[in-house]
Amino acid sequence: MQTPVIRAPSPIVEGVGLDIYIKREDLNPSGSHKDRALFPYVDKLVMKGEKAFCLSSSGNFAISAAYYARHHPQVQFHLFSPPTISQEKKDRLNEYKTDNVIIHWSKLARSEASQFSRKAHIRLLRGSKDDYLLEGYDELARELVEQTEGKGGSVFMAVSSGTMLAGLWEGFRNIVGTGRDPSLPSLHIVQTTKVYPIAREFDQDFTPSKVSIASAIVDRVANRKDQVVKAVKESHGSGWIVSDEEITSAMKKLAEVLHENVSPESAMSLAGLHKACAKGFRAKEPIALIFTGK
């Protein structure tokens, strides 16, 4: 499931010459990093005899599950998603819909998925709580070390629950445990001015908003908050809260240098780096921007 890394083809932070890589997690089979967590975990459960699952998702986790089910017809998924997710994500979800994928549109997706799990006696997959889902990010950590030649540096990524960051940090620490010290990178989380329960531990310079174009950043509960904050601090990273204006600016810049459009969530990695530079924060190089999904 290795995804490519590309060098930023031209300076993408105005006035600052930085060594920047872009990790294309949006090129995973279903279009997001969620595949890394879900595919190997469900594979293990299926081998143990489980055949039906349910989950709630603001988009990419459900799309990943639908993609998996399409290629594993013996597995059934009940997917609970709010009707407010973007039309682009609805289209992708419907693209992978099959007879073994049942979609439940609900404003109370999380609570209804939990109730359904109990009544139907099937496993509820919870990205924000299940630590087994972290294991899939070991591979991502190894790829980043290899593709940036083990130079450490910094990693910027958008987070909602923070599952990817928690898994990535464990992956980096596991590499050190094998005797290969790649000089652990600093981890930087980026959240929106609408949803920021984790990043506000590091960044208070923002104006809260009621809306955001980054519709996948939704987790206000942040069950992994302590775990994520600890990882960021241990790595000597930070957190950044960005506005729609900053995200849009990053999207335009990336479209200019990559000649393709990227999602708001992917562009948040660059928006966070922009803000860090504007605040005088000198991020360790090389810098990896993670494009989390389409």
From TrEMBL:
The keyword Lyase applies. Gene3D superfamilies: 3.40.50.1100. Keywords: Lyase, Pyridoxal phosphate. It holds the Pfam family PALP. It comes from the Bacteria. Its cofactor is pyridoxal 5'-phosphate. Signal peptide: none annotated. Transmembrane segments: none annotated. One of its GO terms (molecular function) is threonine deaminase activity. GO terms for biological process: isoleucine biosynthetic process; L-serine catabolic process; L-threonine catabolic process. Residues 2-293 form the Tryptophan synthase beta chain-like PALP domain. Belongs to the ACC deaminase/D-cysteine desulfhydrase family. PANTHER family: L-THREONINE DEHYDRATASE CATABOLIC TDCB, THREONINE DEHYDRATASE, MITOCHONDRIAL-RELATED. This is Tryptophan synthase beta chain-like PALP domain-containing protein. It comes from Candidatus Uhrbacteria bacterium RIFCSPLOWO2_02_FULL_49_11.
